[in-house]
Each structure stands twice: as structure tokens, then as C-alpha cells.
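Forwarding the complex inputs:
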Amino acid sequence: MPGLRRITSVLLLAATLGSATFLGGTASAKDLFVVDLVNEPSSLDPQKQWNPDSYYVYRNVFDNLITRNDDGKIAPQIATSWDYKSPSEVVFKLRSDVKFHDGEKLTAEDVAFSVTRIIDPAFKSPQISQFNKIKSAAVTGENEVTITTDGPYPVLLAQLVKLSIVPKHAVEKAGDDAFNAAPVGSGPYKFDRWDRGSLVALARNADYWGDKGPFEKVEFRAVPDAATRLADLQAGNADLIVTLDSDQAKQLESSASAKVLSALTERIAYLKLNPTLPPLDNAKVRQAVAMAIDKQGIVEGLLGGFDKPASQMANDTYFGYVPDIKNVAFDPEAAKKIVEETGAGKTKLSFATSPVFDQRIVQALAQMLSDVGFTVEIQLTDMAAYLKRAQSEPAQQANLAFGRWSCACQDVDGVLFPLLHSSSSWSSLRDPKIDALLVQARNTLDDKERQQAYNGVAKFVADDVPMVPLYEAAVLYGGAKNLQWQPTANESMFLNRMSWND
Amino acid sequence: MPIFFAKRLFQALIAIFGVMTLIFFLQRLAGDPVLLLVPMDASQADIDRMRIALGFDRPVVVQYLEYIGNLLLFDFGRSYVQNIPVAELIRTRLPYTLMLAGGALVVAFGIGIPIGITLAIRRGKPIARVLSGLVLAGQSMPTFWSAILMIMVFGVWLGWAPPSGARQISSIVMPSIALGLLSMATFARVARTAVLDELEKDYVRTGHAKGLPMRRIIFRHLLRNASIPVVTVSALEIANLLAGAVIVETVFAWPGLGQLTIQAITARDFMVVQGVVLLGAITAIGLNLIADLLYSLIDPRIRMGAGS
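Prediction (whole assembly, two chains):
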């Protein structure tokens, strides 16, 4: 049985290899800062994959062209300043004192390369939709890059906040795969090692040009189970953990060694209504849905008060937010009357959701709607099936769908355009007036004109109710008592904006 | 013997091929992972472009033939999410799963067998009552619950072991116990029954009549005979331990194949799921094959019976 022997020897070899990686050992004190993520990063190449578990890590390894400061304002990073040469051309002046971790200088070539790389369809970046209005990036002087867009594009800067600068020489030399396995950036932390499935280790970049990181070494570990993350934090096995729910946060509030760190994010939770199918094709019935929902009750009763009822599909960290907008008020009695008058309760309403969303909210919404006379059927599918249905033809979409939206750009264009413009696969609305406003706001650099258009859209959402904005979602982290850190709306985790009090 | 072996091997290959085909088509029934990969505000054109780039626009049969063709060249494909070869992913995770299964087997065997023997010999005594309670607990506690309980007690309150992860050698203790508990109960019950059966046999009475001490009867004679059903169960339990690690690995953040499987399934990372399932099928079928061969080596009657 030579085959059997071979299998045995392969297994033995594997076990030996395993025990070799196993004996990693740990450092002591606060030289080592441990973060529990849900999953390991999908990718450390910042242009390949874009999800929180990945960018929590790689945003510390790479610098971006521009960034947002703790107040949420767009701020210089590699670019020191920028000018519109024409409505579709922006000239960026770059820092000249930035070095990559391998000692090479970061040049305008690297910036142009980074843009060109991510917009190349052959590179297959899932992020391409965030940058596909960019036509080209060219070096136009020493420490100067000019980015040309396909017509005026007001959201360019907000999108460029997400563009990391990769070193041209390293990427070209190593190839995409090897670069992903051992990335080289210019950020406050250097890549140290990646134990697949277990952790990514970073080391402090002592030569960083900006604010240096407070910890010598940092480990980002993959801990899928929320209860285990909480136990890690309480046992001191981790110093910062992500993605708590409100019950777990309450548990931490009484802890002596740990605390809750929370921030309102740019994610807006909403209930989407399908106005192409009866009975929700009647604006009055849609208003009745809005009247039936007690946002305050959801936020306080279910979410522990960390979140905030939303008046529109944005919050005040967005461009395009309308400060004083009038919503349909919570009024179950009036809703009941409308449902009775219109006979809307006779039709069964399908309500699409997926396990990634908080099912308590979904059930509460269904209950509130039933209370005023609607007949609601919750339809739970996995996320991929949910997304597919949410993006199909309006008639195939569910009557109601729960969702949480973030464009990670803090500009309402990234929310309203995909959800309401008739060309978008997410939209079940077919309204030429709204289409015109959205296009107008997207194609001008005049902030006033944009705001005016968005005022119109926000008013439409409030009155006509194509969706009910529910709440501004909070992000809940657990941190060790000694950790000083203020989470931000864009859910970044910049280590060099943290500090540690012993 | 060679003909028997060749026949069995052929059957095994067909079974593996069947599993592979089934998982390939089942996964694709529910759509593709493209929508999970792109940001929420991606336009339809971007989604279509991504779909073409990953090859999901082609007929499923074409994708299947390509997959089979690559498999014959030992190319297991690439992860859509992590962008690295599946073989590489599995290679880094497999040692952890093997270690955990090994640890669990030590727990199951090392505790289960002595308990089983004690239960049989001390039947009706107080110690047997206590131990059978333990076996019952091992069998009835759901893993996700006993695992969390252990983490709270030993990881957080007592601080004896790290609550999760795989950074220290001591990290393996709790997951091994959590995973091994159910198998421990199985081993204990099988060993108890086997020993009880043997206790009735003539040779035991003869031993007593000869004046042999009980200890000697059990360790010299009885255990050898009682070991046959235990060996049979072992083969099944090893396969179970490898497969049952999914929950334990998730709760303890143990970076093995089980955790990888869950992540791959939720992300619809087809190639990774296929790779893991293929490995699981090969392991299960391989273990069965080995067990069959062992039987026929031990007992020639089984070999002849298999020909029919």
C-alpha cells in the first residue's frame, strides 16, 4: 500500500509543520496590543479586498492619498493639497519625505501607479466601482499627480479617502500574490507575519513620518464567536474587540477591567418598501407603514440606546444631510385607520432579511406592522440570496426589505443614487423627477446646487416613503480600561490615533 | 487480495467523484458570490464585469468540466475571497485540525476507556453511578455550550488557560476536552458493553476457577477480546472528530479547517468549500478503506464475504 504510506507521511509532515508554527510564544506587557477581529483579513493588499476585517489591519500598514480626521473632515495624508485645474482634473501635491518600509522613497510614480492599478478591469478589484469615474492618473511634476475624471465628479475626494498607496517597485517585483502575502506600505505599522486563519502581526514603524504608533507590536486575531471575544477581553487575552451587540455591551459596562467604546457610524438602517407592487403602490399606505414604526422604541428597547433614530438616509457626517426635515410621525392609530380604509391588510407582504442583520429588529418591525393590521411574512435567506433578490427587477423584489447602508464615503450620493435612481439594480423606484435631481447633484462641483438637489430628494423620501429610514447604526467595540481611543463614523481603526494609560 | 483491494479502491474513487460532483452543483444552485464581493453601491456594469472576470457568466457544465480538468492536474483552484490557491489555504489549516483531533482523541480514549471498564466491573457500585453521570453529561451537553462554559470558568475566572486562539501550547487543552467529550462518552459506553459481554464468557469463569486474580484476568485476557468493537468505533470516531471540529474551532478561534469551512460557506467561496469537502470525503472514505483492510487481515472470512 504505497499510497497509504504516502498519505501517512504527508500527514506526519503536516503535523510537524503545524507544531512548528504553534510554538509562537507571546510577549508581555503593553508592548503587545491584541485586537480580536471576527475573521482574519481576506486580503492585506489594500486594493484587492474591502471589508472591515481587512481594512482594520491594512489601513495601519498603508498611507492613503487623503484621509479623514477624527472630526470626519477630509484631511491631507500623502497629498498635502489639491486643486481643481478644471471640473474634471484635480492636481495633487504630494509629501516628499515619505518612505516605504523597505526604505524606498514614496514618489508621484507610486501614487499614479496605485490609481492606475485599481481602475484596471484586468486587476479585478472588487472596489473598482468606487473609482470607476477616474479615467487616468498621471505624474505631472515632481511630487505632483493629476487625476482626470469622466466629467465633473463631486464625490472624488470622498472616494479617494479609501485609496491606499502601494509601492510600484515592490508590487511589480513580487507580483500581486506575493505582495498580498507580505505587503509593503508606508504606514505607521509594518507587516510582520501572517499565520493563516489565526492572526496577522504588525510591528511599529519607528521611522514613520507622521504620528507614530503607541504599541511596539500589534496582533489582529480572528475570533469568530462574539462570546469568545468578550471572554478574551475580560481575561486580558485581548485589548480591543470588535462587533459587540447591545447585550454584550451592557455586560461590559459593569466590568472593572474593560469598557465599551462606541460611535455612530455612517451606516443607516432602513426599511425599504417596494412601490411597484400593491398595496404599497399607494403613497398613503406607505405612509401608514412609516406611522406604524416606533424608531425610538427600537433604539431604546432593543439596541440599548447606542444608536440614534434617523430622520433621513444620512446623518450629520454626510455631505447632503438636511438638518431639519419633517418625517411622518409615529402614530399607530392613524396607521390602523389607513390600513382599514384601503384594505391593505388583505395582501400578504413579504419581508426580506438575512442572518447578518439583527433579527430582533426585523421581528420587532414585523410585529409593529402587524399591530396596525398589515399581514407580514418574514423571509430569511442567506446574504448572497438576499442581495440577489434585493437587486433584481422591482416586481421580483420583496414588498419590504430590511437593510443597512453605508457607502463609506460620507456623501449622500453613495446612498441615494444606488437606492433610488432608476438605473440602479437596488432601486425599485421609477421616478423621472428624482432621477433628474440625483443626476444633477452627481454632475456638478457646486456644493450649493448639490445640497439643493438633495434637499429635494430628502423631502421626497420623507413624504412619499419609498423607504423608512430607521436608525443611525452605532458600532460597538470593547476595549481594555487603559485604552484611550475614540472610534469614528467611518469604522477605521487607526492604531496611531490610540493611546495607553498605565 | 490484490483484486479485492483494487475493487475497493475503484469503489472509493467513484464515491469521491460523486461527492465532488454533488457539492459542485449543489453550491451553484443558489447563485454565485459576486454580489458578496463588490461594495454595496457597485453598478450593474461593475457587477457584470466582476462576474465575467471570475468566470461565473459561463454555463455551469463548462465550469464543472474546467474544475475536473484542473483537479486531474492537482490544481484545486483559487479562493475568490482571499485570492490565494485553495491547496495553500488547506495546507496552512490542516495541521491545526489534526492537532485538535489528536488532542480530542487522547481525551476520548484516555478517559473514555478506563471509565467504560470501571463501569462494567463495578456495576451497581457508587463509583459506577458517579461515572455514568459523567458519561451522560459528556453525551448530552451541546458543544457550543460546554465550550463557552469552559472559557468562562477556566479562561476568565480562574485564568488557567487562554480563552481562545492557538498562540500557546496550553491553548489546545480546552478545545480538545470540548471536542473529545462526546467521543469520550461513546468510547465509555462501547467499552462498558464489550467488557460486560466478555465477563459472561467461559474463559473468564475458567480464569476464576484457576484462581487467577481479577486484575490479571482483565488485563491479560479480557481486554484483548473486548478491544475489537472499540477498534471499529475508533475508525468512525476519528472521522467524526475531524468533521465535528467546526463548532469547537469557531468558539475557540482555533484556526483549523472547520473554521475555514464555515467562513467559506457564508462567503460562497466555492473553490474552498469544494477543496475542504473533497479532503473530507477522501479522509472518510480512506478511513473506511483502511478499516475494511484491517478486518480482512484479522478475519479472512470478511475478505471472502466482500467478494459477493
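The first helix of chain A runs from residue 2 to 22.
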